[in-house]
Each structure stands twice: as C-alpha cells, then as structure tokens.
Design a protein that fits this description.
191 residues; Rossmann fold; alpha/beta
C-alpha cells in the first residue's frame, strides 16, 4: 500500500488496486523524483497525467502545490483517485480536480485546464512512446505548459533508448535517472 512520504499528508495510506495495470510509483522513486525537483514551487499548478492511484499528484499537493489535476483513462483509476482524495482534509479538495481522458484524443480539452508548471507523466510501459512525445510537444506549443514548466516522464529503462531529445525540440532534457525497473526523464521548458 503506497504512503505519502512528506508534507501535509505524511504517512497517509493510499488505496491501490491489486491489479497490475495500475502501478503506483514506489515511495523511494517518488522521494528521489521530488528531491531532484527540489520540492514544489509555491503556487505550482500540477498535472498528474496517467495518474493511476494519484500518488504523485497527492505527493505534490502534500508538498504545497496550489492545484492538481489528476487525469487517467481507466475508470478503475478514476475510482481509486476519488477514494484517495476522500482521505485528505476537505478544505484542500477545491485544489484538486479529477478528469477521465483518453490520449491523444483529449489533448485539446486538457489545454483549457492549463497552464501547468509541473507535468507528471507515468504512462503504461506498453504505451506508445510517440503518444507521450506528441503530448509534450502539444503542451509546449499551447498554454498547457507554463513558461519554464518541468515535466517528469516515468518510463521503463528500455524506453529511454526509444526517443531522443531532438524528438522534443522545445524541451531541454535536464537529466535521466534509473531505479531498477523504473527510469525517469526530467524535462524543462527554457525561459
């Protein structure tokens, strides 16, 4: 059962289905990612795309994000996220929104929700890398990503070799990290 690592909800147990289709980011990986990000800028608007259990977005909210949009296409994930949101203080619920969306079909619907200063992406590993590249390029060209936005793209270590920084011409690759069967690319929009 995943737990929130730090902040307002430190130690909060989150619901996670036993179904392997929804795999929350493990606590050590979440902790490492947020350490790399140097926590959350005050007032950050966060998009948790492919949210699964909502663990990453809730971690961001626990650390001071001003707004978090949880987005997933799976009805089971949406139900899990809504259940996990019921565990946080009611006064913080207005800072959250849950949206069921399919990609790339709903990209334009998402752009009406922006801009976001932090975009968290944890797509299913079997998902086409092209979908994430298309999304990030779309986000950079619209008001979905704010100026100087950061994107964290979780993926399998093998996926790192299936794309190159030139596939994302508006984003700068800040770094990549690996943790066993998980990797992440941290991307930034230049000023």
């Amino acid at each position: 059962m995943p737990k929130i690592i730090t902040g307002l909800f430190k130690g909060l147990n989150l619901n996670a289905p036993k179904d392997l289709e929804i795999r929350p980011t493990a606590a050590p990986v979440r902790e490492a990612i947020f350490s790399i990000l140097d926590d959350i800028p005050l007032g950050a608007a966060v998009l948790d795309l492919y949210a699964g259990t909502g663990a990453m977005g809730l971690e961001a909210l626990s650390r001071g994000a001003e707004k978090v949009l949880f987005c997933d296409k799976s009805p089971q994930a949406i139900t899990t996220i809504v259940g996990n949101l019921k565990k946080i203080p009611a006064r913080l619920l207005p800072k959250t929104e849950v949206m069921r969306a399919t990609f790339p079909k709903d990209f334009s619907r998402l752009s009406k929700q922006g801009p976001f200063s932090l975009i968290l992406l944890d797509p299913p590993y079997a998902d086409n890398v092209f979908n994430v590249i298309s999304f990030l390029n779309f986000a950079a060209q619209t008001n979905l990503a704010s100026p100087q936005a950061t994107a964290v793209w979780e993926q399998s270590p093998k996926s790192l070799s299936h794309w190159a920084p030139q596939d994302l011409p508006r984003w700068e690759l800040a770094l990549t990290r690996r943790w066993g069967k998980k990797a992440a690319a941290i991307l930034k929009l230049p000023a």
